[in-house]
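ingest -> fold -> write
write: protein_1
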Amino acid sequence: MTDDRSVFEYKIGLLAPSRVGKSTLIASLLTEGQQLLARDSSVHLLTADRPTAHRLAAAYNLVSGALKARVFQPGLVPSTSDPSWFRLLLEARGQGLQIRFNILDYPGAWLEGAGEGTEDEQKWSECEAFLADSSVLILPIDSVLLMDAGDDHAHLLAAHLSVFQINQAVLRWAKNRRELAGEPAMIVFCPVKCETYLSDSGGLQDQAGALRGKVVDQFSEVLKTVREAAPHAAIRYLPIDTFGCVELVSARWLHAEASPGSEILVPKYRVRPPGQIVRKGLDDLITLLCRQLVDTARTQSERTTATRQTVALHSRSYAEVREGFFRDLWLSFNGERDRRKRAADSDALLFTESQRTTQSLFDVLTALAARESGPRLHHLS
């Protein structure tokens, strides 16, 4: 927390291999978050800087253009080639209170170990440090890989999902969270591209149970790692429709020399008319993130308020204490008594500001808690 501006900053890590859609998910968080919170007069979500605004606009235009082609192939949306920051602000309207979300996007191939050269190794090392220090970890998972890989390619799933690499990164994260017990600790398993498998978005079949079962099965070691290394961490499962208006037409394995098994699964979708994006599950993810981080900010603010109250009481007592006639006369003469009173007034003001911040955070949390979670959200802890 920054004392003079009531700004709370948290890191949110996305952990996934290439071609899953991390950049699209990040862009969707802001777009959907703005629409969701627009219905609540107490808070709103916005970009924190121009580079973030430009990246989000570029991602939106790419996806929108691809959907208008009526036959959507995710591979046509370029993958991230360099790490980049997305900085979002959750603001309490009219209260000068900000909660900053810092999200790092990076080439998924780096997680898979495909980075080349010492420069890539150094950049990936920095990404690993960011992920380990993140308050919340989101694991986007390719639902098409899970559901349509086929029996003949089932042995390639763990490699294509980068389960081992993810488990190593989660282990480091979990150990960090255990050492920082007063900070948030939440990991969210988020299957993406779920439109075809869940009926509540217009799909023709309901395979919600099968999808959740496959996630738990493939990532059983990751779940075990979190439960053992950070037993206090919240574990959530939340499938998300990346676009909401597409239906899987085919998923074919094609030759790709650099991929595990020298094959890669390439999905092809049709766009359901009228081609309007309706993302299911993302509103729950936004609410989940906001609740977790606002609640943590409130706890931190309460601790700060308690400390400042103690300091303010001590300062006031020190300013008003009587030290004998001649000593008091000297303190008044040399200005020390006035300096003590000014210090006490300043500490009292800081205490009052902390009280206001804590109350503002409580009000924001109350507003967020009023929204009920959807049926897609499940607890795995």
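write: protein_2
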Amino acid sequence: MTSTSANTTAAKKDVQKLQRAIIDGLEDVKAVDIQVFDTEHITSLFERVIIASGTSNRQTKALAASVRDAVRDAGFAKPRIEGEENGEWIIVDCGAAVAHIMQPTIRQYYHLEELWGDKPVKLKLGAPAPLVKAAKPVPEEAPKPAKGRMGSKPAAKSAKAAGKPETKPAAKKVARTDDGTYVGRVGKTNDWTAKRNAAAPATEPAAKPAVKKAASKTPIVKIPATKKVAAKKTAAKSAARKPAAKKTIPRGK
């Protein structure tokens, strides 16, 4: 019992291997509408029927040659090929599996799926795509401050480039004494500042510019017209009152 089950398992593996080789040969030449049917319960001559279509005589012949080479490369015996001269319907007999390569009109007319299609076999067409690992995101590095002649730039400029608020250094506080001198951080009075303050003259406030006074002008008095007429009349009267000049008559006439 053990040997029989082992032989059965090995035979099934060989059938699956042969089936895979035939499908690979068909896919290499772009076969159309590949279907596989399990015929073990119908006949004892073969266990798989594979049907595929080619669009022309040239493609069907190429498909048959590709299946033959794929089966032979998989370690099986060289299959028999029938109908290769015509190219409309080519049968590739691989022993445990038979491949029917047909043109679409011939396949539609004979419709072999009705004869062998009781148990269709699910297929995974196409070679599995290789797994590609997703690349890990690379963390972005912080920009390094540019170096000048004296080394790296101050931290304030790099903070400004990074978008951070700048921090200004605290202003130095200088104390001033009563006599006008200044005291530094140590607390000692700077002598030179005292001398400078003593030598400097006191600054007086600048005098304001004198405002120019406008020159006084004598007002012009306008005499009414009636007064002018009266003045003319008085002048005429005074002229009429003057005595007339005496005429001198020369002697001898």
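write: annotation protein_2
The helical segments are 2-28, 57-73, 104-110, 113-116, 155-161, 191-199, 225-241.
The first strand starts at residue 32 and ends at 38.
pipeline exit 0
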